[in-house]
Amino acid sequence: MHYVTNKSGYEYLPHIADARFIAYGSTLEQVFEQAALAMFNVIIDTNVLKPEKTVGISVESTGLDDLLFDYLSELLYLFEVETIIFGHFKVNSINMSNNGYTLDGQASGETTDPEKHCFDCEVKAVTYHQLTIEKKENGYCAHVIVDT
Questions:
Q1: pLDDT digits (tens, 9 = 90+) for 108-127
Q2: 10-147 — its CATH code?
Q3: Which of 79, 112, 75, 78 is nearest to 91 (CA)?
């Protein structure tokens, strides 16, 4: 697994079988972006990826924890189905609606090329195990475990 030092955005925590991290941000949007970046850095060193392809991401869920789960799961789905390895994330908005929360954003990266990209680890799925989003004094943090 590739570990990235990103003091302001996320940190990895020890876990026996899976990848576990906490994402930080002054806004919910930043926390979601950092969680996506941390998840994809489990897969590959995102610093080598260029934003050649951009896809829109829209997710709606009943709660914030569900929204984060659905957002990260959608990114993994697009990685698998559309064969785009993402390294750049922008969450434009997270809004409360009558049915819960909505997220609007984009993810950018490159078409997956096994000859060009060196994958560190496979992320099979996002889990609900210990998934939380917390309001802190200076912003937010999200705790995530992904199945590897």
A1: 999 999 889 989 889 999 99
A2: 3.55.10.10
A3: 75
